[in-house]
Amino acid sequence: ARKPWEESRKEAEAAAKSQGPHAAVSSPRKDDMLSTNTDVLKKYEQVERTRLGRLFATSLNQRLDEVALEKKQVETEAKHRVLIASKKDALSKQIAEEVRLAKIRLEAVQKRGQEHSLAEQERAHQKWLQVEENARKLEENRQRRKVERKLEAEQRQERRAKQLADSEQYHAEKRAELQKKSQLIDEMHLRMHSKKARMQETRKRFWAKLSREKEVVGELFETYIHTGKLHRPWGAVDLDGDAIPTVFEVATVESSPQARLIKSYGGMRPPELDE
Fold first, then answer.
1. Which residues of the chain have pLDDT under 50?
2. Quick one: pLDDT at residue 234?
3. Measuring CA to CA, how many Å separate 229 from each of 79, 234, 265?
4. Where is the region Disordered (predicted)?
5. Global pTM?
6. What whole-number distance in Å separates Cα of residue 107 and Cα of residue 115?
7. Which pLDDT tens digit goes with each residue over 136-192?
């Protein structure tokens, strides 16, 4: 088997010619010198071998890296497949368990729903019975209140009739009492009028007697009043507006028949209606 650098020796020589230190100036003599100089050729061959060896090593390392990467990728894919398979298995088991639990819950819900429906039916039946019982009680109460209202109306009518009878008797008694009071008031008025008439008669007699006595003592009073010996800080006045002598004034008069008359009638005053 030929080595890789031997296969591309011509390209390496061409590259060495073009990239050498004397590649800028090219002549047939220099080309001949390069072709005939064994040391230079060996040198360039060694350099080329080193470069190609490095290139091969680099490509080999790259290939090894690629192979390792591919192997790692294959292993990773295998691990992934195993992991995915295990996860699928676990997920399938979890799903199966959830489905089983969901079925159990559904059965429980259906069972509870059946029980609930039965309980609802029972409650509805009991409620209907309660409604019927309430309706029956309401009807009984209505009939009872109707009878009670009728009895109350009859009792009110009886009480009203009794009250009317009692009120008639009461008013009759009141009328009799008022008539009696009115009669008493009339009698009292008659007595008052008779008393007033008697008092008027008494007053009339009093003033008549006083007028007679005044004629007797008039001259004496005129004498005392005109001389200034008799002062009247108080005293009564008769119907004519003249002063009536008082007890104090009588005490200043000499003992005489006229003085005795003054003492007897001087301090009197006419009686009032209430007396």
1. 1, 23-25, 228-239, 247-256, 258-259, 262-263, 265, 267-271, 275
2. 43
3. 168, 15, 21
4. 1-36, 139-171
5. 0.24
6. 12
7. 999 999 999 999 999 999 999 999 888 888 888 888 888 899 999 988 988 888 888
CA distances (Å), origin 50, targets 11, 23, 37: 15, 21, 20
